[in-house]
User: What shape does this take?
Amino acid sequence: MTILALWLPILLSAVLVFIVSSILHTVLPLHHHDFAKLPQEDDLRADMRSRQVPPGNYVIPCPDSPSEMRTPEFRQKYEEGPVGFLYVLPSGPPAMGRALVQWFVYSLVIGIFVAYLTSRTVEAGAPYWAVFRVAGATGFMCYALGAPIDSIWMGRRWSTTFKNLFDGLIYSLLVAGSFAGFWPGAS
Assistant: This one.
């Protein structure tokens, strides 16, 4: 079976994930407290503007070399704090349109990978639950299993990661249902 034969579940799963993720992140209060406000935020923003900090990814403190990390002076910086990661975006309102298009395209790409793996492991005409299991597991790996990385390495709160894992579970169930419901040759 070709991936093109699975265009409908690929597209349907991307549309469903797009709609449900919009509800999870804007309507329901689940993610409203994923980020905290910094103390004296306006002072920090003014200081960053005066330093003309360009968009990018930063680590604080940041060593100039791996060997510098082992020096007593650099270890003192860790002790004094703060220690963290900072993502600086371009000034102006968030580019929601662009991000939403990228999210939809990302969901289509996940659908293509789900189609590929499922079509190589489940035959045409397979029972609903056989398709559901493979498509759902593949969808979960794509949407959820990368979430713990930011808690392990970047200090993201585990509560936020668990919410993202929950989101990934919901998305994978939508993917699984889309593929199982429209699997070629199924009766």
Q: What stands out?
A: The mean pLDDT is 95. The longest strand covers residues 56-60. The chain has two domains: 13-29+95-181, 56-89.
